Amino acid sequence: MKKNYYLMSDGMLKRRENTVYFVNKDGKKPIPINKIYSIYAYGSLTFSSQAIHLLAKEGIPVHFFNYYGYYDGSFYPREKLLSGDLIINQAQHYLDHEKRIFIAKKFVEGAAKNMEKVLKYYSLENKIRSILPDLDGCNIITEVMNVEGRIRADYYQKMNEILPENFNFDKRVKRPPENMINALISFGNSMVYSTALSEIYNTQLNPTISYLHEPSERRFSLALDLSEIFKPILVDRLIFYLVNKRMLSEDDFEKDLNYCLLNDKGRKIFIKEYDERLKKTIKHRELNRKVSYKRLIRLESYKLIKHLLGSKEYKPFVMWW
Amino acid sequence: MLSDSEKNLRIIGTQIHYYFICKTKLWLFSHHIQMEQESDLVSLGKLLHEKSYKEEKEYTIDNLISIDFIKKQGCLELHEVKKSRTMKKSHEYQLLYYMYYLKQKKGIENIKGVINYPKIRKKVTINLDESKENELMDIIVDIGNILDMETPKPERMKICRKCAYFEFCWV
């Protein structure tokens, strides 16, 4: 079974024959190449071109995060899975406004319904269900974004009721996050983005053609689209878990006048639990087979491909438990 | 422009193989929606091929047909290595197609086909006759028609569970 490798310390990736080694101050650790699914680099990472050659050959993406834990970019190996027919369909669904907005709404719908599930778990009343029908009347993407914004505003407000008082927050602030919850959301969201990108890499989808987000907005905006659906499931639930179980405390953050970020220890805790979640399996209703949360993102890509090929209309993933 | 019959021969062995197994898989594979890269069964097949006949060389002809190995014993003997006999018919037709291709495009008449099952130590010899040739011509036309249409709806079969496209088809 392939897995994600999270490199937390500074070090170097070297290749010897067909093995990649991570070398840091503690020594040299081999990483068997056929065990790597993706690499997440949080420390400062040096790598030899030989190592990159091998990673490229095996189609392994490396995601880079800076000192503050922000996503910097990815080593996205040369595409191996290309389907001209699919790319044409993917672009066509972007260019045709009706088709584009249909998919964009589905992403918002999926995200909203998953947020609703998260709140329902804590028995919290919310307005999501009543705002969601407003999507029907949206004719342009900014209107869709607007509905999404209203849903999120209600959702974030409700999050405070789940969190202990010292973790409460007023609103979502990015770059830099100014309090602990914003720091956790930002950190988690960038992880989901990278995870989604790795999944897209392993399909024939082109990561730059997106529907909810503008393709020009960020380089791999399709990963942003897919992340929306999984953020409540993978990040928000994890935050409540870590905070309410007191696995994270104020000591795990680094604070300044105008920013707040997870420190090394906090990051380690978060990443460990995040990875546990990715590996966790559920019995899939349609497939009647166990699938991991990570695999759910892949399945979402498959559903999108089927939609683009016209073989089955896309329905976003919504937790059924 | 390619003539119709030439165009018809832009088909690879895998497509003939898939034609007998599943039309959805044939369509997706042919439109480059490929999934085999993650399939353990496919890797196993490749490994078997590499380990079983180490001294033999694989031949790829016109970038279309890939013959596991060839022997010359009075006639040209095309060899195909397979893991098990569960998909007997599709294996046979894949090899028949290679024979047909070499006959049509290269004018080689005296060809024999052998399917090797190293795991069960069995060999099956097949011959191309006129009725098989006619059948192949129909199959080639039919494949062309399938590929021009929309993705065929998958049909649930026993073999679905082992297929690399399982999740794709049924999610």
Topology:
The complex is a heterodimer of chains A (321) and B (171).
Chain A: E1 3-7, E2 11-16, E3 19-24, E4 27-32, E5 36-41, E6 45-47, H1 49-57, E7 62-65, E8 71-75, H2 84-95, H3 97-121, H4 128-131, H5 141-162, H6 180-201, H7 221-244, E9 253-255, E10 260-262, H8 264-279, E11 281-284, E12 289-292, H9 293-309
Parallel strand pairs in A: 1-5, 2-6, 5-7
Antiparallel strand pairs in A: 2-3, 3-4, 7-8, 9-10, 11-12
Helix pairs in contact in A: 2-3, 3-5, 3-7, 6-7, 6-9, 7-8, 7-9
Chain B: H1 4-8, H2 13-21, H3 23-30, H4 40-52, E1 59-61, E2 65-67, E3 69-73, E4 75-81, H5 88-106, E5 111-117, E6 122-126, H6 130-148, H7 166-170
Parallel strand pairs in B: 4-5
Antiparallel strand pairs in B: 1-2, 3-4, 5-6
Helix pairs in contact in B: 2-3, 2-5
Pfam families (chain A): Cas_Cas1 (PF01867)
InterPro entries (chain A): CRISPR-assoc_Cas1 (IPR002729), CRISPR-assoc_Cas1_C (IPR042206), CRISPR-assoc_Cas1_HMARI/TNEAP (IPR019858), CRISPR-assoc_Cas1_N (IPR042211)
Binding site for Mn(2+) (chain A): 148, 213, 228
